[in-house]
């Protein structure tokens, strides 16, 4: 079975700081994979390397068997990698539907088609009622969903979610979880960076835990939460011994 | 909801057709040459500002150096006609193409700059070009170029006896610039430009090639601006660096859009209709001693608009229609 996404020995150094060291992970088609770890573990760096914000110092990234290590973000999107931003980056002076149209335009240049597609995606994300509102008028949880909708409009094979569930109320987070699950059911593979363990763990098929720039463990969520190494990384050694 | 968008597009087209028809009839009633002159200039600046708006408004790359493209259009036409007898129509297209190419060549380094730094670069580059033309003997240097007078005809695009042909050309130019904007607005480019303006990083992540879309906007904008410069050369039939390339023109292209509503379809037209007659009238009332008074007028207007309607005067109209963003 060939992985949809694979990183091979990826390193990222920022001056003297090693943010990612020798990271090799794989994401299979149809999975929801959680990328977790304490603050400063290198999750966001790895996420940005996969999204194409910057090239890694060393190592390679394969998508669908193709080496995309040096491709800029726009071309990765063309190939089927879409992302959201941790700090939402809506097009504030544009309406909600126009935001999504920008994403849809990568697959078609026929405006009528892009508009139809965008509306469809908005319905999928539960934002259709807000289609003609300016993005700046949305409440934070709606903006998060707009980020996801915009990314989905590019018809990705791999959807990268950067803390889309963080900072939401439990009800909003539940809506978000449903959305991610439904996206996966349409055939999109999901790699999500998350902080909030109790929301992510029931959602993901597999979790990869980073700590200090390295892969600490990976496996089924149920095993991960009991793993002493993970507990000690999050809470300190004292708690791990107790477990 | 799909309908509301199509309806808005149709309404814009109908409005444009209505305004054009009314404008075309105005000269039948207004015979005063001075007023006709102001009308020509108003239409020309409306079109120029519309062109500026493509790069500055939609794509968000504020240029205060568009006088460069205006001047290139004027000079290309005037030089080709006076030195080689090439008809102005070819000069117009040639000037447009030259400007588009230069805009892209300048964009190559400049589009890496963001915000204020980009604005400063555009001002400086236009000033350099101004100084070069001021010292370029073959192009008339500071003395400028007198465009040789031939017979009045559409072929030579010269009309010494009447301003009406210029008026209709300016009207046509204005309509074309509006139509180009109208068409681009609902195209891939239009959406890409607005995305680039609002958030380049997010745009890039959605497959928008930010750099290329800025280059595209610059080329279209510069081409149309040069056509305006070319027209102006024929209209005044004498050009020098001061009269076609000074910073003043860069301001006069940006201000109507800013006043009327930056990045909107109607903003530049609305802004020009208010600003240009006001400028011309204050200039003529105060006369030669009042040079710079028009700048005070702009300044006052901009301050007022910034305080009352930061989105431009067009905001007065769209306020009632909820959710209408342009």
Automatic annotation (TrEMBL), chain A:
<dbReference type="GO" id="GO:0015188">
    <property type="term" value="F:L-isoleucine transmembrane transporter activity"/>
</dbReference>
<dbReference type="GO" id="GO:0015808">
    <property type="term" value="P:L-alanine transport"/>
</dbReference>
<dbReference type="GO" id="GO:0015192">
    <property type="term" value="F:L-phenylalanine transmembrane transporter activity"/>
</dbReference>
<dbReference type="Pfam" id="PF00005">
    <property type="entry name" value="ABC_tran"/>
</dbReference>
<dbReference type="GO" id="GO:0042941">
    <property type="term" value="P:D-alanine transmembrane transport"/>
</dbReference>
<feature type="domain" description="ABC transporter">
    <location>
        <begin position="5"/>
        <end position="237"/>
    </location>
</feature>
<dbReference type="InterPro" id="IPR032823">
    <property type="entry name" value="BCA_ABC_TP_C"/>
</dbReference>
<dbReference type="GO" id="GO:1903806">
    <property type="term" value="P:L-isoleucine import across plasma membrane"/>
</dbReference>
<dbReference type="InterPro" id="IPR027417">
    <property type="entry name" value="P-loop_NTPase"/>
</dbReference>
<dbReference type="GO" id="GO:1903805">
    <property type="term" value="P:L-valine import across plasma membrane"/>
</dbReference>
<comment type="function">
    <text>Involved in beta-(1--&gt;2)glucan export. Transmembrane domains (TMD) form a pore in the inner membrane and the ATP-binding domain (NBD) is responsible for energy generation.</text>
</comment>
<protein>
    <submittedName>
        <fullName>Branched-chain amino acid transport system ATP-binding protein</fullName>
    </submittedName>
</protein>
<dbReference type="Pfam" id="PF12399">
    <property type="entry name" value="BCA_ABC_TP_C"/>
</dbReference>
<dbReference type="InterPro" id="IPR003439">
    <property type="entry name" value="ABC_transporter-like_ATP-bd"/>
</dbReference>
<dbReference type="GO" id="GO:0016887">
    <property type="term" value="F:ATP hydrolysis activity"/>
</dbReference>
<dbReference type="GO" id="GO:0005886">
    <property type="term" value="C:plasma membrane"/>
</dbReference>
<dbReference type="GO" id="GO:0005304">
    <property type="term" value="F:L-valine transmembrane transporter activity"/>
</dbReference>
<keyword id="KW-0547">Nucleotide-binding</keyword>
<keyword id="KW-0813">Transport</keyword>
<dbReference type="InterPro" id="IPR051120">
    <property type="entry name" value="ABC_AA/LPS_Transport"/>
</dbReference>
<keyword id="KW-0067">ATP-binding</keyword>
<dbReference type="InterPro" id="IPR003593">
    <property type="entry name" value="AAA+_ATPase"/>
</dbReference>
TrEMBL record, chain B:
<dbReference type="Pfam" id="PF02653">
    <property type="entry name" value="BPD_transp_2"/>
</dbReference>
<feature type="transmembrane region" description="Helical">
    <location>
        <begin position="115"/>
        <end position="133"/>
    </location>
</feature>
<dbReference type="GO" id="GO:0005886">
    <property type="term" value="C:plasma membrane"/>
</dbReference>
<keyword id="KW-1003">Cell membrane</keyword>
<feature type="transmembrane region" description="Helical">
    <location>
        <begin position="164"/>
        <end position="184"/>
    </location>
</feature>
<dbReference type="GO" id="GO:0015658">
    <property type="term" value="F:branched-chain amino acid transmembrane transporter activity"/>
</dbReference>
<keyword id="KW-0472">Membrane</keyword>
<feature type="transmembrane region" description="Helical">
    <location>
        <begin position="296"/>
        <end position="317"/>
    </location>
</feature>
<feature type="transmembrane region" description="Helical">
    <location>
        <begin position="12"/>
        <end position="30"/>
    </location>
</feature>
<keyword id="KW-1133">Transmembrane helix</keyword>
<feature type="transmembrane region" description="Helical">
    <location>
        <begin position="36"/>
        <end position="55"/>
    </location>
</feature>
<feature type="transmembrane region" description="Helical">
    <location>
        <begin position="215"/>
        <end position="239"/>
    </location>
</feature>
<feature type="transmembrane region" description="Helical">
    <location>
        <begin position="251"/>
        <end position="276"/>
    </location>
</feature>
<dbReference type="InterPro" id="IPR001851">
    <property type="entry name" value="ABC_transp_permease"/>
</dbReference>
<feature type="transmembrane region" description="Helical">
    <location>
        <begin position="87"/>
        <end position="108"/>
    </location>
</feature>
<protein>
    <submittedName>
        <fullName>Branched-chain amino acid transport system permease protein</fullName>
    </submittedName>
</protein>
<keyword id="KW-0812">Transmembrane</keyword>
<feature type="transmembrane region" description="Helical">
    <location>
        <begin position="62"/>
        <end position="81"/>
    </location>
</feature>
<dbReference type="InterPro" id="IPR043428">
    <property type="entry name" value="LivM-like"/>
</dbReference>
């Amino acid at each position: 079975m060939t992985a949809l996404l694979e990183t091979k020995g990826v390193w990222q150094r920022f001056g003297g700081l090693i943010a990612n060291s020798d990271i090799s992970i794989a994401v299979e088609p149809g999975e929801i994979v959680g990328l977790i770890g304490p603050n400063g573990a290198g999750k966001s760096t790895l996420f940005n390397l996969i999204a194409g914000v910057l090239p890694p110092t060393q190592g390679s990234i394969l998508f669908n068997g193709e080496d995309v290590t040096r491709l800029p973000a726009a071309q990765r999107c063309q190939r089927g990698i879409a992302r959201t931003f941790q700090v939402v980056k809506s097009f504030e002076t544009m309406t909600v539907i126009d935001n999504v149209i920008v994403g849809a335009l990568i697959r078609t240049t026929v405006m009528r088609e892009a508009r139809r597609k965008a509306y469809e995606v908005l319905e999928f994300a539960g934002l259709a009622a807000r289609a003609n509102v300016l993005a700046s008028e949305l409440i934070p949880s709606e903006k998060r969903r707009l980020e996801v909708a915009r990314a989905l409009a590019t018809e990705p094979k791999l959807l990268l979610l950067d803390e889309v569930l963080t900072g939401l109320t439990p009800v909003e987070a539940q809506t978000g979880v449903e959305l991610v699950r439904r996206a996966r059911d349409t055939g999109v593979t999901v790699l999500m960076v998350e902080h909030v363990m109790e929301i992510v763990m029931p959602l993901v098929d597999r979790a990869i835990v980073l700590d200090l720039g390295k892969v600490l463990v990976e496996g089924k969520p149920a095993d991960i939460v009991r793993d002493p190494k993970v507990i000690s990384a999050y809470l300190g050694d004292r708690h791990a011994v107790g477990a | 909801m799909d309908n509301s968008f199509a309806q808005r597009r149709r309404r814009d087209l109908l409005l444009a057709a209505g305004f054009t028809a009314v404008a075309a009839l105005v000269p039948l009633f207004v015979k005063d040459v001075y007023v006709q002159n102001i009308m020509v200039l108003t239409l020309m600046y409306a079109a120029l500002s519309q062109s500026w708006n493509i790069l500055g408004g939609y794509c968000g790359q504020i240029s205060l150096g568009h006088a460069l493209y205006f001047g290139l259009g004027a000079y290309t036409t005037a030089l080709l006609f006076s030195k080689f007898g090439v008809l102005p129509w070819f000069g117009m297209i040639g000037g447009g193409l030259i400007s588009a190419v230069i805009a892209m060549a300048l964009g190559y380094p400049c589009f890496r700059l963001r915000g204020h730094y980009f604005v400063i670069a555009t001002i400086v580059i236009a000033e350099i070009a101004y100084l070069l033309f001021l010292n370029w003997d073959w192009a008339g240097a500071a003395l400028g170029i007198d465009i040789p007078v031939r017979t009045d005809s559409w072929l030579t695009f010269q009309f010494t006896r009447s301003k009406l042909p210029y008026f209709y050309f300016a009207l046509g130019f204005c309509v074309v610039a509006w139509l180009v904007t109208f068409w681009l607005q609902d195209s891939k480019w239009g959406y890409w430009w607005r995305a680039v303006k609002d958030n380049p990083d997010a745009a890039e992540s959605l497959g928008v090639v930010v750099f290329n879309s800025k280059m595209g906007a610059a080329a279209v904008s510069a081409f149309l601006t040069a056509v305006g410069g070319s027209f102006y050369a024929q209209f005044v039939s004498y050009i020098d660096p001061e009269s076609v390339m000074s910073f003043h023109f860069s301001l006069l292209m940006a201000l109507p859009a800013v006043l009327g509503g930056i990045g909107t379809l109607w903003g530049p037209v609305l802004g020009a209709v208010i600003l240009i007659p006001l400028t011309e009238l204050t200039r003529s009332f105060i006369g030669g001693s009042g040079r710079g008074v028009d700048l005070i007028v702009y300044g006052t207007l901009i301050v007022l608009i910034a305080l009352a309607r930061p989105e431009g005067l067009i905001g007065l109209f769209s306020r009632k229609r909820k959710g209408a963003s342009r």
